[in-house]
Amino acid sequence: PPGTGKSHTIANLICHFMAEGKRVLVTSQKDQALSVLHNMIPSNLRPLCMSVLSNVRDSREKLERAVATITEIVTQSQLHVLLEKIKNLEDKLDWLREELTKIERRIKELSLTQYRYIKFDDEEFLPADIIEKIKEEEKNHIWFVDSPEYEITIKNFEKKEIVHIIVNPPLSTEEIEELKTLRNQLLEYLSDLSYDLPSANELVDGIGFQKIAEDYQRISQIEKTIKEYIPTLIFKNEDEKLFDEALKVLKDTLNTYKLITENWQYSLLSEFRKGTLEINKIKQAIEKLNTKTNELTKLYQTIDPLQVITLPETFSLEEQKTYVEQALDCLKKGKRIFRFLEFNRKKKAILKSILINGKSPDSIEEWEAILNYIRFLTIIKELKLRWNNFAKNINAPQLSKNETPEQDAKELLFLIKKLDALLNYETIYLPKTRQILSSLIVDADKIVTDASLEKIYNALKLRKEIKNFQSSKYLREKLKNNLQRIIAKGKPHPIVKELLEYLEDIYNKENIKNWEKAYLRVKNLESIKPQYNRFKELINKLSKQAPKWAEKWIEKNISEEELCPPYWRRSWWFQALRKYIQDISNGTKEIYKLEKRQNQLMDEIKRTKRELVLAKVKLSLTQSLTEAQLMALKRWYLAVKKLGKGKGKYTWQKEKLVQKEMKKAKDAVPVWIMPLYRVSETIPSEFGSFDVVIIDEASQCDIRALLALARGKKAIIVGDPEQISPEGVGINREEIQKLIKMYLSEIPNKDYFDLETSLYDLANIVFSGQGMLMLKEHFRCVPEIIEFSNKLCYHGEILPLRNPPSNERLEPVLESVFVEGGYREGRADVNKPEARAICERVRQIVNDPKYKGKSIGVISLLGKDQARYIFNIIGEYITPEQQEEYKFRVGDSYDFQGDERDIILLSMVVGANDEKRLTTLSYDIKRYRQRFNVAVSRAREKLILFHSIKLENLKPNDLRYQLLYYIQNKTLPDEIEIEKKVDTKFESPFEEKVYHWLTSRGYRVTPQVKVGHYRIDLVVEGTNSRLGIECDGDRWHPPEKWWEDQIRQRQLERMGWTICRIWGSDFYRDPDAAMEPVLHMLNKLGITPSRFFASNFDSMKDIDTTSNNTR
């Protein structure tokens, strides 16, 4: 039927066949339908469809584009890339379909919950109906605010699914009673026990705390003394080993410093520090002295104070030493000191002059003592000389000349020791002290001085003494850490902070008593901890399903009756029921999201299919097309260019060349689109040369279309027996019958192979209606226009889906204009007054801004003469530019078949003076019915019938009568539209409540809006848009219809409708929340409430919107 999307359907079929690699021929009686069809093929596939139409320029451009595209695909496509892309796209398509199936299954699952009955005591209710029962009882259960867990069992009874809600509270009745008992016992302490507390074992008692306090008092005193010694002393290291080493170094340094007592030492130390004396040179000199000093010390120690040794003064010590050594050597060898004849008188004199204790030595020991004494005198003499010279340079004391050697030795050793102490102190001990103290104290270099050494030493000893109290310090820190750890958990008892404060203020004696009290309190709370732990165990079990109820058990200001009524189990089940209803509501929200995702997937499937079709077509061309075929295609294109319009002396030769090249080139193109006459001219006469032949507008084609049909292995014949068929005007019927008898005598149904039977009718006869599909969804005309054809020709089977919003409608849609004085001249089919009235009306339309952008057509309902006349005079009313802008066209029904306009003006042509010679256009005569059907169904938005004869002057069985009656009364004569009462406009009370909810807020709402055979529950009208609302989930919308409604919604959305669904269970539970998605969509569409809107349904003002009952 007209306007049912046949061109879209054919375009989809072409894409499908292209994806399968099939070759397709699409043909029709006229170019116009094929041109529309070509433009409906997706843009990425369009260049692969070779369109050969009568518009030479347009046809050449399409041919050139097709040849170039096919050439590019064949020469540049890579087989492995295409195969991989196809696989990926097929995998993606499978995944998308799988996801879509999952979503559809999930939507069905969620929607099914809205239609299951719920067992409530001894009754069953739908979710939308049970809300009222819940409201009746909920006041008894407001004390219980949790949403406990539940399970459901579903039982089938009398074709109903009945849900039983089963609950399993985590505590038994006995445990609830135990919980009550424990609460009564612990109520006074619940607050204390709810906090984190230390155990008594983690604390110390009062005596232990007192010892810590006393130890800290001693530590405080020590630290005070240390500060008195050195106020600025700050320790940075408490390492015990380092302390001991520092004390040892300090002691050595102090002992050395104590040897510095003489003024000359202080003076020399000062000189050293000023840098006036080079300490290294002095140190070297002392080292040389020390070499002899060590020997002197040893010798000095060998001198026996009881022995008096007398040496001769006339001889040098060196000489005496030499002779004494010789004498001692002789004695050691057992010889005599003097030989028998001793000629060395000096030796003899020297040795005889040496006395020990007043007599000559007579033993080796005595001679050794004499030798040591001589050596001692030699060294002391040398050292005295050297020291006195050295002392002059450093202002040190010199040795006296009058002293005895022993006194000189003693004094010398003392002075050298004093000098050594000074040097060691300055170069060794003091630097070492500074170094080790820098690891212990801050700013050691500033603090360590000669005067502070002893104070530092004493401070370190005191600091070390503090370590004796380390156990108390450790215990205090341990207690603090334990308490701080409890605080860090985030829920400490106030007593924890108090205990920590007592530890911090350890020097306050009052805190000893405070600690004892706090300790005893902790110990008491610890004693009832087992009962509390059991109480808490039960509370924790309870809180898993009822956390808010569990919290109330620890509140003091709630009585036991308020806390736990005897019917607590009923309340538990009741709230589980509410949770089940809430879960159903959440399911509807999930449905909204799933539907959004569903739309996204469907769009993605469309995009993927387009890509897949193109990839498969490319693969098919790449695999099958040979270079010879490609060259033949290019040659064919050149031959077509040479043929041009097909006129001239050598046209037959050019046509022959086109056919020759076409024979080789036709397989190179997936789809050929051309009118029937071009098929015979262009495509070689070969049976089955195409996989599929599609013949459009087959109801206009006669037997000659079989020439195209023969070229296909399979055929799709598209047409409408209720539109114009071949009439065989001017054909000699007798001659046709002779030819049938002569050549078709053995052909079945041969009598129909004439020039008056359409190919569509012939196919219908041959195949007896097998494989027939009627497209029923009508997209072109507004319902008022197509309804005439629907009832006239299609038994009401057409579903008009186009229903534009009120602001887009060209009211009145149906209009009749009576032309007073209109007449038909003589026997001609021209009514000039009517024609001029039509032209005037066209001028008014063109000059009216309301019709800006609309297309206009004029159709004569009686022959072409009237159309020609209007065509000739229209220039007097509108300019050629206006004709082009408004796509103005005039003709009869045959001219307009396959075409459409926004506004159609019909001319009845006949006038009042024709009454006696007026031929009745009977419904039973097919060609009349077809003409009227085509004429009316060309109008998309507005139909205006101009007539010069009134309804009473026409016969009721005349199609002109029926058309005029329909336009004036919006129905055919044999039908009476009975207006329903307002209260029958609604299918359910649920729809009524939603209606009143919207209208009470100022929205303009129409219930039960008919769109084709469908009805939309409620439509909210705006200035420029509208919203359809479907009310789901009550007994008037059973589950078996819900999925049908979903499919219906898809069909309506394809027509531009926006549909929003709401569920009864959501609305009855919380109307405002349930309507939020509706309000959101209304705002999105720009539909706002009108303050001045008054409902057209006054009789419904007494409806109670809070109940399922209607007053």
Structure description:
Helix content is 54%, strand content 10%. By secondary structure, the chain is α/β, with parallel strands linked by helices. Among the domains are: 6-76 and 626-767, Rossmann fold, CATH 3.40.50; 173-218 and 473-544, no CATH class; 777-969, Rossmann fold, CATH 3.40.50; 989-1085, VSR Endonuclease (Endonuclease, Chain A, 3-Layer(aba) Sandwich). Strands 2-9-1-10-11 form a five-stranded parallel beta sheet, sandwiched between helices. Strand 3 (117-120) and strand 4 form a beta hairpin. Helix 8 packs antiparallel against helix 17 (453-466).
Describe this structure in a few short sentences.
Helices cover 54% and strands 10% of the residues.
User: Oligomerization state of this entry?
Assistant: single chain
Radius of gyration: 62 Å
CATH architecture designation of the domain at 6-76 and 626-767: 3-Layer(aba) Sandwich
Strand order of the largest sheet: 2-9-1-10-11
The average pLDDT is 84
Distance between the termini: 46 Å
Content of β-strand: 5-15%
Helix percent reads 40-55%
**Class per helix and strand makeup:** alpha/beta
Taking the sheet with the most strands, its summary is: 5 strands, parallel
Please state the overall shape, judged from the principal axes of the Cα atoms: elongated
Low-confidence stretches: 976-984, 1092-1111
CATH topology of the domain at 6-76 and 626-767: Rossmann fold
Tally of helical segments: 42
CATH class of the domain at 6-76 and 626-767: Alpha Beta
